[in-house]
Amino acid sequence: MLWPRVVRNNVRTGTDREIVRGYPYRSACPSSVWGELTEAATEDITLAGYTNYFLWLDQPAYVDTLRRKAEAGCRVRFLIGDPEGEVTRQREAVEDVALSVSTRIRITLEHLAKLGEVPGVEARFSAASDATNHVSLSVFRFDRDALVTPHLARGVGHDSPMLHLRRQEERGLFDRFADHVEELWERGRRV
User: Model pTM greater than 0.85?
Assistant: First the structure.
């Protein structure tokens, strides 16, 4: 009652204030956003896309960047799908594209091998029982920011919508997605 309608419609005051920006396609998010979030992170970078392959293509010298971040004390984690898993095979049939899901995962594994054994960097495959939940939702966390992509039925990740979230409150959107990733991480197995 105290707030004029125009203010209520244009100022975020509820849980939606954690939404920094929405993109109709993940590919519509400028690569500079990914780079800026990576550079700004000092405590936690968690990349929990099912393949994560696009990061190596979009971010120049990403292996070196992640190594530098880890050496500076930032925890860097990758949660990826199992390239040999049943859900991976099912998703490949659904997507029916030349650059298969298992190939995209192997691109990430190849770059992780180039990264080598760096303290603070860890990678896990999601558990087989969690693979369906993992393939349908990608969460990329950079300290208090996250890029979240709920995957649409038949599209590949870059064609799915994405939200940029920034943590503002306990148990808000950011925390809900972060908790989802932590649950998958705990049941995952080391790469």
Answer: yes
pLDDT attached to residue 70: 98
Q: Is the dihedral of CA 162, 112, 68, 178 positive or negative?
A: positive
The residue whose two tokens read 């603070």 is 120
Is a pLDDT exceeding 80 seen at residue 1? Answer: no
C-alpha 74/C-alpha 60 separation (Å) is 19
24 burial type by CB count under 10 A (0-12 exposed, 13-18 middle, 19+ buried): exposed
Report the C-alpha gap between 29 and 18 in whole angstroms.
17
Torsion angle, alpha carbons of 183, 105, 47, 86, to 10: -20
In this structure, whether the domain defined by 21-190 belongs to CATH 3.60.15.10 is answered with: no
